Amino acid sequence: MSERPGDGSGEVAAGLRADALQNRNRIVEVARELFAARGLDVPMAAIARRAGVGVATLYRRFPTKESLVTEVFTDQFAACVAVVDQALADEDAWRGFCACVEKVCAMQAVDRGFSAAFLTAFPNALEVDHEHGRALRGFAELTRRAQRDGRLRADFVPEDLTLLLMANGGIVAESRQAALAASRRLVAYLLDALRADGAGRAGPLPPPAPLRLHDVLRSGSGG
């Protein structure tokens, strides 16, 4: 990369602080739009170009793509954890489980960037790692409760969430509204298949697949 983070350091002058803040906010806004539409593979140079700033300016504000992604999706990370917390607070374990799956899949369907961000390992972003782990532990507890109450089929395992997200991630639509509608219908089919009262009609399931949440990213990229 020809441009260096140190280029144009005069922007830090007091008289330009408002412009610098405006540039930073514009970068975050544009990154959010591009990540949502195209995922996290958008080049930093493309973000800078759309935001109307130089690449050096972008790297002064966000030295790594990881730092930009974390800034863009901080609120969504918290929202995802809140979805799980709300589901755990529901006295009806099956209803909480269904609500969690529906809302997480809806978030994935309308924002490819967030689903990719949530599934990506950010070793230097401790807060993201904490939120990620907390959400997964909460979902495992939702699974246990729904099975304890006899509502969720006993052969479902928390790792099957990867399969659900892979299926949901395959939705391709011309608009956010269409993607959301398709996700809701698909998830309704899937949740119906997860009911304990319908389990076993076609015989036992094959053993769980050795999948990780990170595999959702590979399925979405076709690699």
Beta percentage is under 5%
Shape: elongated
Q: Unreliable runs, pLDDT <50, ≥5 residues?
A: 1-16
- CA radius of gyration is 20 Å
Largest sheet: none
Count of DSSP E strands? 0
Helix content: 55-70%
N-to-C SSE series?
HHHHHHHHHH
Number of helices: 10
Task: Outline the structure in words.
There is one protein chain. This protein is mostly helical. The chain has ten helices and no strands. It has helices at residues 17-38, 44-51, 55-61, 65-89, 93-110, 112-119, 126-148, 161-169, 176-193, 215-221. Helix 1 (17-38) packs across helix 2 (44-51), helix 4 runs antiparallel to helix 5 (93-110) and helix 5 packs across helix 7 (126-148). It is elongated and about 60 Å long. The relative contact order is 0.11.
Write the layout of secondary structure elements.
Elements: H1 17-38, H2 44-51, H3 55-61, H4 65-89, H5 93-110, H6 112-119, H7 126-148, H8 161-169, H9 176-193, H10 215-221
In short:
The protein has 223 residues and is mainly α. It is 65% helix and 0% strand.
Labels describing this entry:
223 residues; mainly alpha; elongated; disordered N terminus
